[in-house]
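Changelog entry: the DUF4402 domain-containing protein record was regenerated in this release. Current contents:
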Amino acid sequence: MKNSIRLLASIAAVSVTMALPVAAKAATANATVNAKIVKPLVLTGGGTIAIGTLITPSTATFSNTFTIQPAATQTGTYCQTGFTCSGTPTAAMFNLQGTNNTPLNLTIPLTVTLTNTSWTGGGAAPTLTMTTSNSLAANNASGVYVTQLPNSGFPGTNYYVGGSLTITQATEAGSYSGTFTVTADYQ
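Regenerated structure tokens:
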């Protein structure tokens, strides 16, 4: 009987030991917090694409294209054979400030419609179409250019917009003007 009691006591001790809570090991996991702070985009400038005054040739047939380079200064020959030109040709300059190395879209229209603002004839005023060019890259089909600023805030980066305009004997005389909008937006 003593053995039975000892056996029962041993079984009871094992049962009590098994019933005691086992110390749990703590589980851990890490999380990362990310935040990117960007400066607001500030787009200033614009100004004017100045083509100047163009006096057409006296010949019956002519056609020439005048190009304003998308640069701070114009180089090369601007005036075309047979034309007389005056004024200082200049590209429009836009300054963009924001956060460096942050991808953004710069949208520049591919064409600008110029309307004859001095038109006194009947019907709608004549128009000309200027094809734009810019200092970012060769024109693409969409007019949206992906770029990044090489600096943050001031002084920003300057971008230039120029263009080409074709004048023929069919072009009505007068002063032509048109406006366009350049847009910058982070991706």
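Residues 2-19 form the longest helix (18 residues).
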